Amino acid sequence: MLKIVVAGTTALFLTASSIANAQTSQTSSATPERLNAADRNTLTDMRIDLVKAALQLTPDQEKYWPAVESAIRAKAEDRKARLAKIGETVGKRADESRVEVLRNRDPITFLQRRSEALAQRSADLDKLAEAWQPLYKTFGPEQRQRMAAIAILVLHDMSDAVDRRRAQSEDED
Q1: CB of 6 within 8 A of CB of 149?
Q2: Which residues fall within 8 angstroms of residue 149, CB to CB, at 6 or more apart?
Q3: CA distance 41 to 73
Q4: What single-letter DSSP state applies at residue 26?
Q5: 3-state class of 35 per DSSP?
């Protein structure tokens, strides 16, 4: 069963990566296009459905799921808002060169914005952990193993995304 869960999760993340790569390849490397709102919502729905299916919740466990799903969706919405805010900031400086952007950057404002973003991410993770805790306590050994496998795949996917962004920014330099 674990192999099926891992294969399904891998397929989902490969699909998500393909969607993102297809959209970024349609534009120049200097201005990669982000997923649109509908694609992001579809991707979030797919991830939530996959996690729920992989965990094979019992009827007694189902009562804990709405809080988990709500926390996952809230985290996704807050991330979307943070990205939109970054997009606005970048858009305001689109006509400036990288050197000008760095020269004109206000380091205090940058630190404050970064602090706010990290505080929001921290709050979202706290809410997510609080939502998962009651459900996780009811998990049997197989469910815990499946959740660990999903978490590893998510972390691996996030690491790959960071590596792709770094490589892309190096290509732009």
Answers
A1: yes
A2: 2, 5, 6, 9
A3: 9
A4: T
A5: coil
Tokens at 107, concatenated: 């380091």
Q: Rounded to whole angstroms, how far apart are CA atoms 60 and 53?
A: 15
Reported as a single tens digit per residue, the pLDDT across 132-171 is 999 999 999 999 999 999 888 877 776 776 677 666 656 5
Q: Which two tokens stand for residue 119?
A: 């505080």
Write the CB contacts of 35 (distance below 8 Å, at least 6 apart in sequence): 19, 20, 23, 43
* Tokens (6 digits) for 134: 């009651």
CB 160 within 8 A of CB 13: no
Output the CA torsion sign for 164, 166, 169, 171. negative
- Are 117 and 124 spatial neighbours (Cβ–Cβ below 8 Å)? no
Q: How many CB atoms are closer than 10 A to CB 63?
A: 12
Name the nearest CA neighbour of 61 among 132, 130, 128. 132
The model carries a pTM of: 0.68
Q: How far is CA 72 from CA 23, 26, 97, in A?
A: 24, 29, 37
CA-based end-to-end distance of the chain: 46
DSSP, res 31: S
